[in-house]
Amino acid sequence: MKKSIVAVLVVVLLAAGTFWYFTRPKADADQFTLYGNVDIRQVSLAFESSDRVAEMRVQEGDPVKAGQVLALLDTRVLALQAAQSEAQIGVQEQALLKLRNGSRPEEIGQARAQVASAQADADLAAQQLTRLNGIAASTGGKGVSQQDMDSALSKARSTQAQLDNRRKALQLEQVGPRKEDIGQAEAQLNVSRAELALLKHRIAQAELKSPQDAVVRARLLEPGDMASPQRPAYTLAITDPKWVRVYITEPQLGLLKPGQRAKVTTDSHPDQAIDGQVGYISSVAEFTPKNVETKELRTSLVYEVRVLVKDPQNRLRLGMPATVQIDARGAANPPTAAQ
What we know:
alpha+beta, Elongation Factor Tu (Ef-tu), domain 3, CATH 2.40.50.100, 3 domains, six-stranded antiparallel β-barrel, four-stranded antiparallel β-sheet, 42% helix, 25% strand, rod-shaped
């Protein structure tokens, strides 16, 4: 009797197992689940020059806009140098203007008067020399000493030389400055203007601005610290685009196409799926990273995939584990976010 009961139970169990096997819900081969981590781009901001930090205007976690000033350097020395350069430019501009305008009529008149005065001195010296020569000729050389003759001759030559010098000076006043002198003054002025522009650029670079909308992840300097191009002041997390980095096996590779729709969930919001789409698909296989949860062996070769998401509520954080469900039968749309 007991053997009969056992046999009946075995038959019933086999029948139930067979029924469950053939009637159980079959896994949809066109839908599969992947596991990965949220990834975003980051940027490290540093000043372009070395100077003392004057202000740090934002804190960790603060949202910032593109072009917003985040920090300032002390620019007092640069401002004084710029003021000095502006004053020097003013002096050089006036000097160049003087060269371009040439001689004033009053200066030319003064040069002419000096020529006339030199002409009178030369005429007087020539007359004196002529008079002494006449006396010496009429007296057989006894009426005038040789010293007086030499002095008169030297005076006549000196006054004639002064007259020639005054005439040349008058010609220079009438012709005006040389083109080379004007060109040199213009070049010096351009050098000073370039130096001023460089100083103004350095003053402008003393403002550290956000390159785009982001969230401050780390504040690395404080007022009073010495900044340098090699020392970042802030690290920013760029909130758009965001993606989930997942890895797929070679059989799954043929089911994915860029633009396919996906659903992304996290442990903190398992019932609030975020829409996404397949973006970048790697063309090179690699070993599965240790931080990725997969059912396959860790040494399996997989392909990296980025599932782009839109997260207006800002629920996803860098490195957060996420679950991605992809419907391979869904239509593929061109990716709309940067990859």
